[in-house]
Amino acid sequence: MLYLLTFVVMSYPFVARMHSHLPMDNVDTHQALWQNWWVLEALRQGRDVNYTPYLFHPEGLDYTLQPPRWTGLVFWTPLYLLFGDPFAFNMTAAIGILLRAYGMYLFGLLIFKRRIPAWVCGAFYAFAGANLTHALQQPFTGASEWIPWFMLAFVCGLMQIRYRASTHGIFWTMLAAAFLFSLNVYANLKIGIFAMLLGGGFVLLYMIVHRLWTLRSFWKSMMIFGLASIVICAPSLLPMIRSEDLFAAASDAVVTDVWGGMDLLTYFKADHDRPLNYMQSIASLDGDQVEHSFVTWGLSHVGLVSFFFALAGLVYAIRIERPVLIWFILALVFWLLSLGVVIYINRSALDFYWTPYRLLEDNFIFRALKWPFRMALVFLFPYSVLIGYGLHYRTRSIVLDRKQKLLLITSVVMLLYGTSIFPIPTRDAPRPAYLSKLVELPEGAIIDVPFGRHVSKYYMSVQRYHGRPIVEGMIARVPPGTYDYINQNLLLATFRDPGKLNFGDMTLENWEADFKQLLDDGFRYLVMHREVPVSSFIGRAKGWALAMFEIEPKLYDDNNVIIYDLTDVDAENVLSRAKRLLAE
């Protein structure tokens, strides 16, 4: 109940708008909405979930390397059938956040043996700015609610080995750990990698500190856990391993141009407007509208108060229980990795560019993560444990009187406020007016203009309502050759990148042939978006694209879109205007 109340406060005003709005403004939310819809649609139609003909029509799109978030679908599907989106989407995110909090609370009880530090540990882990932001804004990488549950079973099993528990008990605990680990993989492969790095790092240090490597039961247990994990995860992993696009995806370099590094001062330089909050954000509530601007939302800002709690946890480790240093070492290692490949101070890159991540950026696992800042999500787990130990250190031997309880409550409030992104920005769920017109029209695929990564994700989200194939679509890693069809068609290539067109190819014969090819491949409607409401990524159709079709008959026209029927368009007139505009 306390976590539920805390969620209501920490997620305001999002929690009051769950039935009608979407959280924050990342375009990945649109992709996640589409993915939920597609899996359900594929199951209904008896299609292969790993291939969709609805995107990049008519070739379709191999979706194998974008595993469905099966664990989220368990909650989303009944909610969607009963209430529809966005409530189902938002409630699924809320359930995940609360599961994360309670799982971490149980883990805290296991290691602290006290409720108060366990609760605070769970609250910080669930509501820390980076975790909350990812859970609401980028649900693919934010579905980390099963990591605490996996660690709960895994650490419990290691403790059983250490204290010579029965072989039967250890066996079932490790099977439970393998099952809970697999839930992370089924949520998302990246989440499975996070769980693997965290569990692997812990067991390595725990094995050394407590000399478990000398015990035969330890190696048997690790074998049981490993084999069970492989068997349970196989249905999710085998299609990826067999995918022809796996090598191309693995060869992608770690992204370093935008999110390749962190500014060290973001951890230690307080926002003068919000002195306890390290989140470099400004959020203001203006009537019913939330305006939110932020810089580097992916960083692991932890807050001033949490730093002192974690420091107290380090003191506890040094003075009371040395093995607790395991959590400090893990926090330090994952924090260093989260810095990426370039270190900044006050937004200026240092003269040297070596970081621990540079040693690993060519590793397959770290290439799969793609963005170095995502390591911050692993860092937050041991950091939250240190916070719990810090509180445990201050309260383990005292009976709290009224003043001490008030001080404790104030400290916890300041701890959570120090990492909050309150108030949570929200935006309308996309269901534009022109959809009613599209639903009425005869069958036919759609060409949405303008093209582009961010607007394409918006088009995917809208596809849930009109149910028509579209010429573009966007996922994290588009397979090689996906854009071949678009690049080879003169009209589509004009929309994508007119600067690369060869005027010699733009003959009437070629143009009409490509126009006919579009019709033969099932395309019927051109939706020209004057303005695309994709959060901060506002796209406007180029003036030349609108001008190409300006005198053609329109099926629909409003302030946002114009819809054309390609069967009513005069291809020769469009070519003439296209040549004139491109020449200019």
What does this structure look like?
The chain is an alpha+beta fold and 584 residues long. It has 25 helices and 13 strands. It has helices spanning 2-10, 28-45, 70-83, 87-112, 115-127, 129-137, 139-142, 147-162, 167-187, 189-209, 216-242, 246-250, 304-319, 325-338, 356-360, 364-369, 376-395, 402-417, 435-440, 453-466, 484-488, 490-496, 508-520, 543-548, 571-583, and strands at 21-23, 51-52, 61-62, 261-263, 281-286, 289-294, 342-345, 348-349, 426-428, 445-449, 523-529, 556-557, 561-565. The strands form 5 sheets. Strands 10-11-13-12 form a 4-stranded mixed β-sheet. Residues 275-300 have low confidence and may be disordered.
Keywords for this entry:
584 residues; alpha+beta; four-stranded mixed sheet; three-stranded mixed sheet; 25 helices; 13 strands; elongated
Short synopsis of the structure:
It is built from 25 helices and 13 strands. The chain is an alpha+beta fold and 584 residues long.
